[in-house]
Amino acid sequence: MTTTTTTSTTVARKPLDWRRFALHAGCLAALLVMLYPLAWLLATSLKPANEVIASLDLLPGTLEWSNYETALDGVNDVSVTRLLTNSLLIAGGAVVGNVISCSLAAYAFARLRFRFRGPLFAFMIATIMLPHHAVLIPQYIIFNQLGMVNTYWPLILPKFLATEAFFVFLIVQFMRGLPRELEEAARIDGCGPFRSFFSVILPLTRPALITTAIFTFIWTWNDFFTQLIYLFSPEKFTLTLALRAFVDASSTSAFGPMFAMSVIALLPIVLFFLAFQRFLVEGMANSGIKG
């Protein structure tokens, strides 16, 4: 009985692990710093215009719900529903294009044997360092000659040509970790390269494909510059372009509605990320892209 009491007392007096406590406190502080801009955006979307400019307080003095009513009315006689549909159409098309084309290109580099495979793969990787602005003017000239300016094709069509070298590299790294015995068994059963790709390799590459889909969706949704170059008509604007048009149309008195529309534009990204977060972590952990 005495031994049990002594053991319990010893466990109760276990000293605090200060290193672990400091690590958790540091992570919590970093989390608060990273979440502060989001909290500020949400709070500012409910502030009156005079508080946005004059007050430094995080919480609004009065809740201005009319900011969201104004934001939902849209800009330039275009409703926020139409703007949201345009954004989803472009982002969805980019996701489908990148997943299909980048997975096919990655399968060729990772599993097939052909002449000049090494130099071509190195050239493809080198394009990651090529600035986007260096190819923007030639691409604009090509699409203008094809009559595709002020349409969604310049924003979607390049994604079907495996132009995103980063995603090709990511999927290649994932495919290289898959056992070749699976393909050999499929080949014995009479499967060719395309059948092996769609029936064997593609299902096993799901984490990398979902990682590609998530990053493509986020980057395309937030892409302001490219959409500004190719889209002119207000009825074809996305939510990203509508923010700029909203400020231009309403001047400095519409800060509250502008931030309210920013919150609306942010919601699809947050929901998309939360829905596929588990696959994102799995894909990054298994594809060789580790921090």
Automatic annotation (TrEMBL):
Spans through the membrane: 21-43, 88-109, 121-143, 155-175, 196-221, 254-276
Pfam family name, one: BPD_transp_1
Species this protein is from: Streptomyces bluensis
Source domain of life: Bacteria
Keywords of the record: Cell membrane, Membrane, Transmembrane, Transmembrane helix, Transport
Primary localization: membrane
PANTHER family, per database record: ABC TRANSPORTER PERMEASE PROTEIN MG189-RELATED-RELATED (PTHR43744), ABC TRANSPORTER PERMEASE PROTEIN YESQ-RELATED (PTHR43744:SF6)
Domain ABC transmembrane type-1: start-end pairs: 84-276
Family, as annotated: Belongs to the binding-protein-dependent transport system permease family.
Compartments reported by the entry: Cell membrane
Name of the protein this chain belongs to: Carbohydrate ABC transporter permease
Membrane topology qualifier: Multi-pass membrane protein
